[in-house]
Amino acid sequence: MTDLPQQPPTPPRATRSDARTNRARVLAAASEALAESANASLTSIAKRAGVGVGTLYRHFPTREALIVELYHQEIQKVIDLAHDLAATRPPLEALRAWFQEVARYGQLKYGVAEVIHAATNGGLDDEHYGPFLGAIGALLDAGAAEGTLKAGTDPEDVLLQLSVLWRIPPGPGAADRAARILDLVTDGLRVRT
């Protein structure tokens, strides 16, 4: 048997710029739509994004695929923000600003938590779990070093407290309720003089 010359592997095709733009528009529209209603249909998301349903399905073959991609995108933004805030603001202000972003994220997650939970095995196996705890730890460490936040606070304990934000139903009063809960969490972390 003769060995045929092997062909060099075909390099992967670059995604066209219009396809990248459409994908970004779908994700932005999904973020808005799901924050308003966990029951937003894929058709309504495609319409909001200004693309056809077929375009949406080419990027996200199922509702779950769209939700999980949106989750990965949003959670990475939240993680990155913690480090940016820790580097640019006083610790207590940075912590509070980050908590507010977590609350905003909680509104996105409300109603789709079951899909995210199933896709990420409940958190412990999720690739973002460790970095999310690291983000909390960076903010807590900065505050402890300054003397405004309690030293030795376990980031997992804070995450558990923050998880209540994902149980607040969207709608009137949701932002006020989240703010009150964040006041309670922040007050519990402060050093008492």
Automatic annotation (TrEMBL):
One Pfam family per UniProt: TetR_C_43
PROSITE patterns according to UniProt: HTH_TETR_2
InterPro entries: Homeodomain-like_sf (IPR009057), HTH-type_TetR-like_transc_reg (IPR050109), HTH_TetR (IPR001647), Tet_transcr_reg_TetR-rel_C_sf (IPR036271), TetR_SbtR-like_C (IPR049445)
Domain of life where this protein originates: Bacteria
Sequence ranges assigned to domain HTH tetR-type in this UniProt record: 20-78
Span of the signal peptide: none
DNA-binding region per Swiss-Prot/TrEMBL record: 41-60
GO MF, one example: transcription cis-regulatory region binding
Keywords, comma-separated and alphabetical: DNA-binding, Transcription, Transcription regulation
SUPFAM superfamilies, sorted: Homeodomain-like, Tetracyclin repressor-like, C-terminal domain
Annotated spans, Disordered: 1-21
Biased composition (Pro residues): 1-12
Protein's name in the database: Transcriptional regulator, TetR family
Origin species: Actinacidiphila alni
